[in-house]
């Protein structure tokens, strides 16, 4: 199968087509209900809003960063580092509280256009605290309020997933986030914990047990970005050490039948992000997407969008491309129920 022909239609369009794509999505809305379990808040902000906020906050971009070249990733990248270039700018805002509200509103409007009925949004609260010059507790409170209002306005159920970044400070970050969560009375707006970041670097040895303890004590769901850079041992660690309920990407698991069996036995869901996987190179163009192996083994999976605005696409496009990657029409029909089943949000109707 020629991958570039099988699913690239529309993917290599130039940036100026963005509005047409958005309008196309709007027409698709209502056709299919969707649940979104893996989307990063700052990867879901439409480019025009990013530009407005950068201007409003007089943000100084890093040397050599060109908005026209570096803000979006809608063609395959040569490396994961190249794919992550937009975050050099995305981590510099919002400094103003009202701009967080602008972001929330724009993100939920995009979700509505994609037929999303419920979403688990993940975000780094510690970055937000740094940017907004407030405590982690205040930043979490801002995030809860802002996304709660936007979700209500757009008629979407939402839960928040708190993201911890891999690396030396992972355990400190998790403890700080959990303290903020407790300070606010363990609000049910927060539904889960996520580990993200560079899979090649180590994390403190106590981090996995801290995730498990948080899961046991607070009933939070655990999802771990793992196996995106080919490290099958990271998927194993997510399952065996972190007590993961879901795996973000998990592409490396596709080549390990024993691990696939374990995912089935333990009913662990993989958050499959087809567009992201091709753009980052997690799945090379000359290889089939492991989605086909997940299906063959009966591993639970949910199609997700990861960073839709950076891709200039949305969950509807990810589902379309998943068909090109081996999903059947019947699988697609079951996606909404699968998202409900594996969601950390309680009482979805
Ligand atoms: Zn992700």
TrEMBL record:
Keyword terms: Hydrolase, Metal-binding, Zinc
EC number: 3.5.4.4
GO molecular function: adenosine deaminase activity; metal ion binding
Residues annotated as domain Adenosine deaminase: 36-346
SUPFAM superfamilies associated with the record: Metallo-dependent hydrolases
Cofactors demanded by this protein: Zn(2+)
GO biological process: adenosine catabolic process; hypoxanthine salvage; inosine biosynthetic process
InterPro entries in alphabetical order: A_deaminase_dom (IPR001365), Ado/ade_deaminase (IPR006330), Metal_Hydrolase (IPR032466)
Domain of life, source organism: Bacteria
Top-level EC class as recorded in UniProt: hydrolase
A Pfam family of this chain: A_deaminase
A GO-annotated cellular component: cytosol
Renumbered residue ranges of the record's region Disordered: 1-24
PANTHER family registered for this protein in UniProt: ADENOSINE DEAMINASE
Homology family: Belongs to the metallo-dependent hydrolases superfamily. Adenosine and AMP deaminases family.
Name under which the protein is recorded: adenosine deaminase
């Amino acid at each position: 199968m020629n991958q570039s022909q099988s699913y690239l239609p529309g993917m290599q369009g130039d940036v100026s087509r963005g509005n047409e794509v958005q309008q196309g999505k709007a027409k698709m809305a209502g056709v299919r209900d969707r649940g979104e379990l893996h989307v990063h808040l700052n990867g879901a902000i439409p480019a025009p809003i990013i530009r407005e906020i950068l201007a409003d906050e007089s943000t100084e971009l890093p040397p050599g960063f060109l908005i026209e070249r570096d803000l979006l990733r809608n063609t395959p990248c040569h490396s994961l580092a190249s794919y992550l270039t937009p975050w050099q700018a995305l981590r510099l805002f919002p400094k103003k509280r009202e701009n967080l509200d602008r972001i929330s509103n724009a993100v939920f409007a995009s979700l509505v256009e994609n037929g999303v009925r419920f979403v688990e949004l993940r975000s780094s609260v510690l970055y937000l605290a740094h940017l907004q010059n407030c405590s982690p507790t205040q930043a979490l409170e801002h995030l809860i309020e802002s996304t709660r209002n936007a979700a209500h306005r757009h008629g979407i159920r939402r839960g928040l997933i708190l993201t911890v970044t891999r690396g030396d400070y992972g355990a400190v970050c998790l403890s700080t986030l959990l303290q903020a969560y407790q300070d606010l009375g363990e609000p049910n707006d927060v539904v889960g914990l996520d580990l993200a970041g560079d899979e090649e670097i180590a994390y403190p040895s106590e981090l996995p047990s801290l995730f498990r303890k948080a899961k046991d004590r607070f009933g939070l769901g655990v999802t771990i970005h793992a196996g995106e850079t080919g490290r099958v041992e990271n998927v194993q660690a997510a399952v065996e050490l972190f007590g993961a309920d879901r795996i973000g990407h998990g592409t490396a698991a596709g080549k390990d039948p024993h691990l696939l069996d374990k995912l089935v036995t333990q009913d662990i869901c993989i958050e499959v992000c087809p567009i992201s996987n091709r753009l980052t190179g997690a799945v090379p163009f000359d290889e089939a997407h492991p989605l086909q192996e997940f299906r063959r083994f009966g591993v639970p999976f949910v199609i997700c969008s990861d960073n839709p605005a950076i891709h200039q696409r949305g969950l509807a496009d990810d589902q379309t491309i998943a068909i090109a990657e081996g999903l059947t029409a019947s699988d697609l029909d079951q996606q909404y129920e699968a998202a409900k089943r594996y969601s950390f949000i309680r009482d979805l109707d």
